[in-house]
Amino acid sequence: MSRAADLLTCLVVPERCLHCRGPAERPGAMLCHACHGALPWLPVDGCRRCGLPRPCPRGRCPSRSAPFAAAWAPLSYEGPARTLALLGKDRAARRVAPWFAAAMVARVPATVTDGVAAVVPVPPDPRRLRRRGEDHAALLAAAVAAALGVPRLPLLGRERSGPAQHHRTRAERLRIAAPVLLAVPPDRVLLVDDVHTTGATARAAAAALRGGGARRVTVLTALRTLR
Questions:
Q1: Which pTM was predicted?
Q2: Which of 2, 86, 112, 129 ranks highest by number of CB atoms within 10 Å?
Q3: Which residue in 62, 116, 108 sits closest to 221, CA to CA?
Q4: Distance CA 85, CA 96 (A)
Q5: Tens-place pLDDT, residues 155-171
Q6: What domains can be seen in the chain, in order of their start residue?
């Protein structure tokens, strides 16, 4: 059986672990006991600006000039968490998104969520949205907003599709075009996406929100790359 077919079987048979494809921890669980124990949780007390697991040296934070005030993610983009993220993009968004959102809200530092008036999802690439059929950032944002008791506002859009981020160099990612602002944002906004890599997408989205009037933008993602 091919890996793709095996993964599809895991999605429709709830007793299978989505990562190792062994027996799930319990009926309906997405991971087995071992894979659940191997989840790469990130500390809450890392760098308050970029979300890396250790405080950055003074003046050397990769987000020191970013238009967002703080960023954080509960999990590193590796191991079982990476598998869940990839499945959440293409095949299992509605199954995976609530689990990630719960992890995001349960451990998020107060510096990221204090005083936010709305949760705004990072807008999807139009072409990839048509192919996948699900907007995973919007699903995450809806669950996070419900948990925080604030509205989810789709304030950002994209005018055109671009090449996939994983095909770009770091320099190309950092030059990503800003999303289009669709309405005036509130004073404090929480920007939500699935993965924080170079921070280019978060920078572009936060810049659009700040340009539209938001005074403070913070970023919450499900996963964070560490390289």
A1: 0.85
A2: 112
A3: 108
A4: 8
A5: 999 875 455 554 455 45
A6: 1-38 (no CATH), 41-224 (3.40.50)
